[in-house]
Every structure is written in structure tokens, then in C-alpha cells.
Amino acid sequence: MNEARLTREGIRIHSPEDSAGMHEAGRVAATILDEVGPLVVPGVTTGELDDFIHRRVEETGSTSATIGYRGYQHASCISVNHVVCHGIPGEKTLADGDILNIDVTVIVDGWYGDSSRMYVAGTPSVKARRLIEVTHDSLMKGIEAVRPGATFGDIGAAIQTYAESQRMSVVRDFCGHGLGRVFHAPPNVLHYGRPGKGPVLEEGMFFTIEPMINLGRPETKVLADDWTAVTRDKSLSAQFEHAIGVTSDGCEIFTLSPGGLFFPKM
Ligand code: MF3
Ligand code: CO
Ligand code: CO
């Protein structure tokens, strides 16, 4: 049985009872991501999608972790096409063929549920669909590497090896993170790396894996709004994020879609 403690890298080892709180927070985040799906159609604005998410956060009795976080004012990040992450919802109207990531983090009984996934408005291009598939499968290959005794480098290597084998690139400028009763905790979960490097995984670690994969080059830049990160070469970018916990023999996913809708219909 694990006692709550910190590793020498500052990574919290949670007790088995803590998983229940993470499952509940993750379920609320995933439910809201399920519910917003039907609203993602050509003609809707990203601000309208965020309004719906904000309302559902309130109706579920949870708290948005992003509103007020470092001055951020919205219940979601919505990142369209070449936006890598941290897109600010607003007046932008979705067009046929747009692809977008919606990222929601809620707090339930003090526990954080953080997940994001891809959506499509109308019919995306073959290349865009392939990017979404490869990004999803990159996350799943990272998750499959999670078990006690493996390392964070094993996770990053699994993601990077697969994405690059499909001639796509891994964003280096943003990473996953520990979470639990805090939003962003050690370690930085890199989506690239070398097998055997980095901290060793232990039962009771909670963290996100949230690879951002680009069709073109990996470099990003942040726009003048200080949030919106875009690909420097304007190539399409995609991201999927799960919050997970290390178990005795692998991992548990806290943010599974209740409706089986994590991967978009397209
Ligand atoms: N949910 C994002 C993550 O995966 C963080 C968003 S912070 C915000 O870590 F302020 F931009 F909302
Ligand atoms: Co996250
Ligand atoms: Co997130």
C-alpha cells in the first residue's frame, strides 16, 4: 500500500483512495467534452462552444480550473487548424473542414479533471484526418508505455517514434504535467525522449499525457494575446489529452469518454 509522499523529483505518490476523486473529476470533464460534440458544426463560433462548456461546468456543480488561471478568462481552450494549443474562444466562426481541439479542466471536490480531444466541423481533408488519427494513436502508444518501473522517457520515446514514423513532428514547447489536487505539478511529461531516461514511474503517480503533433515542422510561436500558440510554418496541428494514474500493473485512465466519443466521427 502506498503512503502519500513526494519522490526526489518532487512527484507526488497518491494513496489508492485518491483515485476515486480523480475518476470523478475526469468523468465530469469527459462528459462535457462528449456533450459539446454535436454543437461543433460549420457556422458556430468558438465563443458559443465555450459558453456551452461554461454553462455545463456550472450545471454539474464543478468549477472551471482555467477561469482565473494566470489571467485566462474562459472555461475551455479551443485550438483551430494551425493553432497548437491555448486557443482563446471568441468570434471565430468554424468553416467546413476545420479541425479543432477542445481542452477542458474542471475541479470536483478539489480534484482536477483535465482532458482534450479533436473535433471536426463538416468534412476535413484526408491529410487532416490522418493527422488526427496519428495524434490519437501517439497518445495511446504513450499510455501503453505506462507501468511501474518504466520511465517518463519511455513514454516520450513511444510517442515520438510513432509520430515521426508517420512523417509528422512532435511539438517540444508544451508538455503534459502532474496533476491531482493541483493543476500543474511535477513532472513535465515530455512527448519526446529516449527509452530509460527520466524519472521512474511509480504506482500512485497522476499525470496527463497530451501530445501535440504537427503535419509540418515542430516549432511554435505564441501570438500577441500571450496565449494562442501556433505552428510557425502554419501547418495543421492536433492534440489529444488524457489524465491517468499509474497502477500496480499499468495505468488507469481518469478521463475516458462515457459515450465512447474520444475519437471523432469523421
Ligand atoms: N488544460 C491545459 C492543459 O492541458 C491548460 C490550459 S491553461 C489555460 O494543461 F489557462 F490556458 F486554460
Ligand atoms: Co493538461
Ligand atoms: Co488540458
Describe this structure in words.
The chain is α+β, with helices and mostly antiparallel strands and 266 residues long. It has 4 helices and 17 strands. The strands form 6 sheets. Strands 3, 4, 6 and 7 form a 4-stranded antiparallel sheet that branches. Helices cover 25% and strands 25% of the residues. Helix 1 packs across helix 2 and helix 3 (126-144) runs antiparallel to helix 4 (152-165). It binds 2-amino-4-trifluoromethylsulfanyl-butyric acid and cobalt (II) ion (2 copies).
Ligands in the model, by name, code or SMILES, are:
2-amino-4-trifluoromethylsulfanyl-butyric acid, cobalt (II) ion
Largest sheet: 4 strands, antiparallel
User: What's the helix-strand series?
Assistant: EEHHEEEEEHHEEEEEEEEEE
Distance between the termini: 44 Å
Show unreliable segments: none
CA radius of gyration is 17 Å
Helix-strand category: alpha+beta
Helix content: 10-25%
Output the number of helix runs. 4
Shape: globular
Kindly state the mean pLDDT as a whole number? Answer: 98
Strand fraction band? Answer: 25-35%
Care to count the β-strands?
17
Question: Secondary-structure blueprint of this entry?
Answer:
Layout lengths: L4 E2 L5 E2 L4 H19 L9 H14 L3 E2 L12 E4 L2 E3 L13 E10 L2 E10 L5 H19 L7 H14 L3 E2 L5 E3 L6 E5 L16 E4 L2 E3 L5 E3 L6 E3 L5 E3 L2 E5 L4 E3 L13
Antiparallel strand pairs: 1-2, 3-6, 4-6, 5-14, 6-7, 8-12, 9-10, 11-16, 12-15, 13-14, 16-17
Helix pairs in contact: 1-2, 3-4
The structure holds 2-amino-4-trifluoromethylsulfanyl-butyric acid and cobalt (II) ion (2 copies).
